[in-house]
Amino acid sequence: MARVAIYPGSFDPPTLGHIDIVKRAAGVFDELVVAVGLNSDKVPFMPVQERIDALFECCAEFKNVSVTSFEGLLVDAARAHGSNVLVRGLRAITDYDYEFRIAMANRKLAPEIETVFLIASEEFSFLSSSVVREVAKLKGDYRQFVPVCVADRLKQRIGR
Ligand code: ADP
User: Fold this and answer.
1) Sheet holding 4-9, edge to edge
2) Is 128 a catalytic residue?
3) Which residue ranges have their beta carbon within 6 Å of ligand 1?
């Protein structure tokens, strides 16, 4: 049976760190579903459809990767995709507390689903979507932190 993993996140915007995790997970699992969470509480920096389109473009080189969005519980989205593995990225020990709590909650909700952590590449271990948002807002060079297809979309949106 194919091992299907799901990699959820806000991806607002997708960064080179996210793509690094996609690449690593695509090498470990038969299929990987990158799932953009729709969170109505947050005002998005990049509209969700643009995030999906950009991820679709960035992931085209990985033949076993698909991109989707989900609303509601992650474990329900995983089940709907026939997946029993949740992939998350770990950058530093500071990620651990947050990720641990989410992983435990998901385990209570769906004991058959495992959370698997992949360690970020050291060159991206400082990188987060919030760093990119901040640099872009302050007119810094955000292009070095994101894939080209994201940079091009951000340029159209913020005009530089
Ligand atoms: P969320 O709002 O669900 O935390 P993010 O888009 O911020 O969504 O992150 C999605 C996942 O990608 C998380 O597991 C996060 O730790 C991981 N991640 C984010 N940035 C990096 C990076 N630079 N390297 C590796 N993993 C990362």
Assistant:
1) 65-70, 31-37, 4-9, 85-90, 114-119
2) no
3) 9-11, 15, 17-18, 20-21, 88-89, 91, 95, 120, 124, 127-129
